[in-house]
Amino acid sequence: MNTTIAPRISMAADGPEFSRIVLGLWRLASWQMTPQERVRFLEQALELGVTTLDQADIYGDYQSETLLGEALRIAPGLRQRFQFVSKCGIRLVSPHRPAHGIQHYDTSREHIIASAEQSLRAMQIETLDLLLIHRPDPLMEADEIAAAFTQLRESGKVRHFGVSNFMPSQFALLASRVPLVTNQVELSLLRMQALTDGTLDQCQRERIVPMIWSALAGGRLLATESDASPQLQRVRQVLQQIAAERCLPVSTVALAWVLQHPSRPVVLTGSGRLAAVREAVQACTQILSREHWFRLWTASAGRPVD
């Protein structure tokens, strides 16, 4: 059986090269894998061409990076085969962080540097390929973040920087101080705002590649509950029709719809099932006709284009 391999893409002119399907490890703790099972899952992802791992300091209640580190300790050779992404800037109230009195954002220089260094220790790696500010902070001071990024780069701890969930004006502010290679944002057939709020337009203008999270709407596109919203019912119906016409899994069609945007996004898959990763990789080879693409857009919007 021929295996589809995820292609790779440069995230920016001077940015890193990532696989177009990124293995998101937000739910790693809930997968209940042994360290050996985590190693095998990572090896299987590599066999599919998935070479980029997405983490955050807070994932799994501050435990996901540690679980990945346990696997890399068993199989240290994997460190050289993956690109590592992490995020910082949110302080969760957690038994693992008892000093946090209230959940809040923190994009201070001190916190960014400490979070990056903790991520390196937890994952047992020497360098992050990409560090993102997880959410826009109302108290964000662009010069202070730029100083933190510069210190991390000069110390060899982080190679590249970006943001997550930033609006275009917020991105532009920080990018005026320090080069950014991506904006990781939500986009799916149930949440299409990034198509019209300027976010993906900005990525094309700046020639950077966006990273897309929740491209399957948190799995809602694949669920079967009968009390779904009218929007979800419409989208599912069209997805199923196109999937049947093309003999493809529904998830592959839904991801192909996202991947087809001219900003050439990379897409996160957050499943611990190898079959789901394989279906995501398959989406990289699928080109929807404009009619199919807009049938899905219309189903989501609930109206035809003007």
Explain this structure to me?
- This protein has 306 residues and is of the alpha/beta class.
- The chain has eleven helices and twelve strands.
- It has helices at 35-47, 59-62, 64-74, 109-123, 142-154, 168-175, 199-206, 230-246, 250-259, 274-283, 290-301, and strands at 8-10, 17-19, 21-24, 52-54, 83-88, 90-91, 104-105, 128-133, 158-164, 183-186, 211-213, 266-269.
- Strand 10, helix 7 (199-206) and strand 11 form a beta-alpha-beta unit.
- Helix 3 packs parallel to helix 4, helix 4 (109-123) runs parallel beside helix 5 and helix 8 (230-246) runs antiparallel to helix 11.
- GO terms for molecular function: oxidoreductase activity.
- Residues 20-293 form the NADP-dependent oxidoreductase domain.
- Belongs to the aldo/keto reductase family. Aldo/keto reductase 2 subfamily.
- Keywords: NADP, Oxidoreductase.
